[in-house]
Design a protein that fits this description.
Strand content: 5-15%
Order of helices and strands: HEEHEH
CATH class: Few Secondary Structures
CATH topology: Factor Xa Inhibitor
Number of helices: 3
Largest sheet: 3 strands, antiparallel
Structural class: alpha+beta
Length: about 60
């Protein structure tokens, strides 16, 4: 029986917590940072839980 392949791009973008929740990074952090406030940029550092509909797809891509 062949092994199940994990999607490499999903592996880099999502993280699964110990309790099984899917975490993702926030959008809008890649460019034009000088016009965004320090408070806003600081919030981008944190990872947030993915929406349930996205979590389902991410879980499938991660082979879970």
């Amino acid at each position: 029986m062949p092994k199940q392949k994990t999607n490499s791009s999903a592996k880099k973008r999502f993280k699964v917590t110990g309790t099984g929740r899917i975490l993702r990074r926030r959008a809008m952090k890649s460019h034009n940072l000088e016009k965004k406030s320090a408070k806003r940029r600081r919030k981008f550092r944190r990872q947030v839980e993915a929406h349930p509909s996205d979590s389902r797809e991410a879980r499938r891509l991660l082979g879970r």
